[in-house]
Amino acid sequence: MTQTAGLLSLPCTARGGTVVVITRPDPALLLSAIPVHRVTECFLPPTLICRLLDIPDLNLQVDFSSLKYVLYGAAPMSLEKLKQAIEVFGPVMMGGYGQTEAPTSISFLTPGEHFVAGEIALALVVFATWKPWRVLAGAYLFGGVTLAQFQAQALGLELPSQFLSMLPYLATILVLAAISRDATTIRLNAPASLGTPFHAGT
Predict the structure, then answer these.
(1) Helix (H, G, I), strand (E, B) or coil at 165
(2) Cα separation of 108 and 54, whole Å?
(3) N or C: which terminus of the chain has fewer CB atoms within 10 Å of its end residue's CB?
(4) Could you count the other beta carbons within 10 Å of the beta carbon of residue 134?
(5) How far apart are CA 44 and CA 64, in angstroms?
(6) Residue 93: in which H helix or E strand, if any?
(7) Domains defined for the chain, CATH in brackets
(8) What is the four-CA torsion angle of 82, 86, 92, 94, rounded to 10 degrees?
(9) Is this prediction's pTM over 0.70?
(10) Angle 115-159-43 (CA atoms, 0-180°, nearest 5)?
């Protein structure tokens, strides 16, 4: 409790939440506590996550629907195990990087960032129409929508994690729908050599 796990409990108590403490490293005890207490957030080291994933048909035995965030850190995480964890727990995995003295987190990987965001990157390029200042504005726009997930949680809004995770993609659809009405402007602002193969020395 004096290390990172203890510090992570502070935002929960500040919001009037309940901190569920497992008295011993027992996977069965942990798994039974999640549906009983309707746990929304938990911090697990990769070693324990791997132990849980070794249990056959885990997602059929335990109700994980209350989980919004499963934070992992303190050790390397296997990519294959991470993919398996997303299949079992849902799109709720969140990676933390740092140390207790940092304090706790230097950077993190949100649940949405565990997936390829090619659509968002494409929308940003189209929105910017190849102008640097619009790239910056678009990055702040999509970044702000992504951070809104955590702001909503901090405000105590009872919103499904699936809805919060889809916010960046919803913003992408709205932006593309809004700017696609003026395809001429997008075409005129495109570089003249766009789509032309580059050959060195020509």
Answers:
(1) helix
(2) 26
(3) C
(4) 16
(5) 14
(6) strand 93-97
(7) 4-110 (3.40.50.980), 118-189 (no CATH)
(8) 10
(9) no
(10) 60
